[in-house]
Fold this protein.
Amino acid sequence: MYKRTPLSAHQLKPLALFFAALTVSGSALAWQPERPVEFVVTSGAGGGTDTFARTVQSIIGKHKLMDESIIVSNKGGGSGAEGYVYSASSKDDPYKLTFGTNNEYLLPEVGEMPYAAEDLQPVAAMAMDEFLIWVNGDADYASAKDFIDAAKQNPGKMQFAGSQSKDTDQTLVSMIEEATGADFRYVPFNGGSQALVQLAGGHVDANVNNPNENLGQWQAGMVKPLCVFSPEQLPKGEPVYEDKGWGDIPTCISQGIDISEYRMPRTVWLPADAPQEAVTYYQELLRKVSETPEWKDYTTRTVQTSQFLTGDELEQYIDDNAETVRKVFEQEGWNAS
Amino acid sequence: MNNLSLLMDGFATILTWNHLLIMVIGVMLGMLVGVLPGLGAPNGVSLLLPLTFTMDPVSAIILLSCMYWGALFGGSTTSILFNIPGEPSSVATTFDGYPMARNGEATRALTLAFMSAGLGALAGVVMITLLASSVAQFGLRFSSPEYFAVYFLAFCSFIGMSSSAPSKTLVSMMLGLAFATVGMDSVSGGLRLTFGIPDLVKGISFLVAVMGLFGIAELMVTTEEGLSFNGIKSRIRVRDILRTMAELPRYWASLIRSILIGIWMGITPAGPTAASFMSHGIAKRFSRHPERFGKGEPNGIVSPEAADHSAGTSALLPMLALGVPGSATAAVMMGGLMIWGLTPGPMLFITRPDFVWGLVASMYLGNVVAVILVLSTVPLYASILRVPFAIIGPVIVAVIFTGVYQVANSTFDFWLLLFFALLGYLFKKLDYPVAPLVLTMVLGHRAEEAFRQSMVMSDGSLTVFWSNSLVTTIMGLGVLMLVWPLFSRMLGLRGWRRRLHRQQPQASKPATPDSRP
């Protein structure tokens, strides 16, 4: 169904390039896909990255932004490493558009991975997902300040649930410890939805899930947000629970937690040696996607910040982001080498 | 009952020709992906997802959920006919389903499986209808220690299941645990047992392992024994289907027990795989004729099937009521909900009652449609066994290899498949049981994770497994299961039970299967 043999990739490529060259000889340097494009999703079906990729797929389909069809394949094994290894090993194949987060460059930092961050080149970052501190809906803490004070009185007792180990969640928890002097215990679970159930059931004290992961449960009052790790408050919107909406959540920095910004980019990648024309083509395609009302709906509904980054801007962002996280890794001794 | 009137509204929503047609299409597509090994329900549902982007949410969810039911039924078909479980949860069906089909009773095995599966699924939906609001909260009481306790119970109810020497069972279990360890360890974030092979980063796919251990290894043994399926001798008559349906009430005890196990495991959500293994193990433990299990015992088909489907259905309850997927397929459907513009979560019942109750109503109808459709295909499938082995054998090999490639588009998996095929063949020749290996391979990873999370939570103290009444009860049950054979032998319980039965009048005793004409 959605497979093709690795052989044909190599056989077809020169042909595809040849025809591509024919069709564009007169016009500008344009690369066009000649056969179905594979969207490699570095998470299991149903995860945040999966929804991201499938939303892009549905928008491309709806607005007919591309003539060729799209095949989505989920490769979420090893915290997403499966997908990156898969694309990295195809060297110059412009038909493997890979969807992920900042774990593309974080995974090789903490573990011996069979790929290097440089094996893939960034095409675009399309949105920024926010992080918040969440506690159980019945918890006594009125503010993040209360929560941190309580944690300081019980060093090492308060538990944070998070998704995966030495990934974005645990990094953030370490940064909170560093910023406040509190000492938490981090319990890794397999994905944000498990971290959520543990919090809603009162088995752990907090988690740092993305807005979308906890939205349904906040609506029901099972969990509540204390603060958001962004420089300013989120845009005002519909109230979610008891007249409170996303815009009413204070920033963490205003609560005395000195982390002004912690976000996760939703990124798209190609193998490192894929032709520059293909990168340009996909950048243009994704830019069109990011300008549709459906994309706006998606980011609003999932409370992400729509931010379209390409080229130097994106490189700069990745460098800064990797630098911040690398510091935490070094401090915690998580580095692979 | 407010729920009942809402359900009636739901029926009103879905009882249109359009929706009924979608239901039939969904079930048929599902059966197709279920029968092809390697595709399976989660893959099938995600393949179909793009088609639903333009549909309204109610039609879309009917299509996807009906596909799910169809796939669950299809998975049992290959388990019974070819010893190839299409899904992890139908592995336990092979234990007795395949021997029965080989004995020339393929029609009976398929009918038993489909009927009990249908009953299991319906029981699950009834539970959702009646208890949606109250039961959902129960799942929240489960944390890592409780999960570990459930897996522990599943392991314990399965120990002693095989007729091989205990030491061989142990070897098999340990190998399964080792295979489960390959890949990334989510607790420490490190890679384990990958030997620098990039293809092992994702871990060893369970499907690749079972297709080798069961499918190819079985073909090798069959080839050795003279290129024939015994099923050829059997005649296929529609009357057999009806006769088997009439036979079903005899297994009421197994049915009820398995449905309860299934519902419980679906809600918690430990999942259909644990439920079906556990249910098969317990059915054997409580059977008066444990020696018949593994040789085509009807209770050994009814139990895992009923548990699998009631768990699979109940797993949709946490998804609807809490916004937490109870199975891989439920996770895909939840992704779908978001794309259709709905937010899965507790408020869905209030904001979109038409959607939720339309889905519940479609579960009733969808399962009935599915049972009718699959039963009508029984003669077709059963007649596959009449095709000469020289033709069907190579076809199965081709299908298996295609299926393995589907799992991850990786040619490396072919080598893994061959490795597991050889391992399975060796196991058979040396009389090592394969089932414990499969069990630990599927559940081992999750059990380990739950255990280590519990250890992080408790600072390394084992008392966490006795820290509240829920976890203590489950652990206690597990230990009881483990020591029960010893215990009963000590007290001479078995002899006592047998004597008790001898005193009962013969008429009230259900006729044993082998006394059938």
Q: What stands out?
A: Residues 504-517 of chain B have pLDDT under 50 and may be disordered. The longest helix of chain B spans residues 91-139.
